[in-house]
Amino acid sequence: MFENRSFDHLLGRLYEPGEVASFEGVIGKDLSNPIPPWAEHGADRGVVRYGVATDMNTPYPDPGEELPHINTQLFGQIDPPSNRGVPVERMVAPYNAPADPDQVPTMDGFVTDYISAFTAEMGRQPSYDEYSQIMTGYTPELPTYAFIEPQIIGHDHNDMHPAYSMQTPGLNFDPPSSLIAGEDLLARTYNAIRSSSSAAGSNHLNALFMVVFDEHGGTYDHVPPPVADAPDPSAPAGQMDFTFSDSASASQRLPSRPGSPRRPSSTRRTATRR
Fold first, then answer.
1. Number of structural domains the chain divides into
2. At what angle do helices 110-122 and 67-75 cross, to 10 degrees?
3. Is the CB of residue 34 less than 8 Å from the CB of residue 111?
4. Model-level pTM?
5. What pLDDT, in 10s, does the model give residues 173-182?
6. Range of the domain at 274
7. Residues 1 and 212: beta-carbon distance below 8 Å
8. CB 13 within 8 A of CB 227
9. CA quadruple 244, 245, 246, 251: dihedral positive or negative?
10. pLDDT digits (tens, 9 = 90+) for 59-107
11. Which of helix, strand or coil describes residue 257?
């Protein structure tokens, strides 16, 4: 189980258009997010277009991942305006959610939310270069996986989670969370399985090595999430008034990669899991 990356952010450039049937990636698409007019730097540019991450520590610092941040990322609004640039524990209802629970996500608030979250964490607004990184992802030439928890084999963050933020009082920023650390652990795990054997047969031929992620963690994806059925329709609203009646009650797309010698090359499957 890896942490905090969206499908576009890691796998959006995995295939060329038409190379694999029904693959919904970013190549060949003109994807962008608007820059809010209240941004102190670069608002005259109008939009941030989707691009390629320039290093292995993107995005830094960590995007917002709590419900109010997700609402802004999906619907492009901050409501009430007092929720802008403040820590999530100071945000109030409706927690940036749209008034219409059936509103379809526009996926155009990632820049807006990143500027707001950055301001809350750093005490200042980010420059254009600092906030435009939220609209970037990786290519097949760069590592695209990393693992679960910090300090497993000596790295500051041996996972895929972007560098920790100061939203938790009393904690300082960790060093930037490089993908290379997680690549290291993934390679060790993969090679251990691949080279394994036993008296009963070669273990790697009988194993499925499943690579999954827990959440999008605030990183960009261009496909609106679907509606999820409520596990208990009679249950009251949850934290921050969340209900499954909202139009974006399911998660954004997450990457997953099954590794098995029995899996055909370029196999793709899209499904909703609970």
1. 1
2. 140
3. yes
4. 0.81
5. 333 456 776 6
6. 1-274
7. yes
8. no
9. positive
10. 888 899 999 999 999 999 999 999 999 999 999 999 999 998 888 999 9
11. strand
